[in-house]
Design brief:
Helix content: 25-40%
CATH architecture of the largest domain: Orthogonal Bundle
Number of helices: 6
CATH superfamily of the largest domain: Winged helix-like DNA-binding domain superfamily/Winged helix DNA-binding domain
Structural class: alpha/beta
Distance between the termini: 67 Å
Shape: globular
Number of domains: 2
Strand content: 15-25%
Length: 178
């Protein structure tokens, strides 16, 4: 029996305490495979999250917790935690595009569909966005309706609004005060 490396670590989960409440985090090897809010629309199956572990002492969960705290304090705009999402080819393409949406900006489902080469895919894009397994780090909260409305968020629209407000540029927030 040899020493277990991080890439051999089994799938496991922990509860991370954050400024947005407790989040269910799922890790696979040295990558984050899931980050879910309570009452998430598409939670993982209980048999797919592995053993429960402490978030302390597990490198993936410790880095995730630290980076989320920095993000919520406004000190971090991107994440370095590796992710492992395991979606179908279309979903993976959508999630790859989500990561390119800059902090403090938004896009629409239709714009993502056009970027994929077919404006008719907006609804399918919405389904993929809604099934994003790694909330916040893969910023599905930055996707809004074509009319600027906050639509669909697996963690709840109130959380989506809070995340967007957190990322709002100071000049935009100030302009709303006058």
């Amino acid at each position: 029996m040899g020493i277990m490396t991080t890439t051999q670590l089994p799938r496991r989960h922990a509860t991370l305490t954050t400024d947005m409440g407790d989040l269910l985090a799922v890790a696979e090897g040295d990558a984050l495979a899931g980050l879910y809010f309570p009452v998430h629309w598409h939670p993982p199956a209980v048999d797919a999250i592995g053993l429960q572990v402490s978030p302390t002492g597990d490198a993936v969960f410790e880095v995730t917790t630290r980076e989320l705290a920095e993000y919520f304090r406004g000190e971090r705009t991107t994440f370095t935690v590796p992710t492992a999402t395991h979606g179908d080819a279309f979903s993976e393409r959508v999630w790859d595009l989500l990561v390119t949406i800059a902090y403090g900006t938004t896009t629409t489902y239709g714009a993502i569909a056009r970027e994929l080469g077919n404006p008719g895919l907006a609804q399918r894009v919405g389904q993929a966005v809604g099934h994003n397994p790694v909330s916040i780090l893969i910023p599905c909260h930055r996707v809004i309706g074509s009319d600027g409305s906050l639509t669909g968020y697996a963690g709840g629209l109130d959380r989506k609004a809070r995340l967007l407000a957190l990322e709002e540029p100071p000049e935009a927030a100030e302009s709303r005060l006058f």
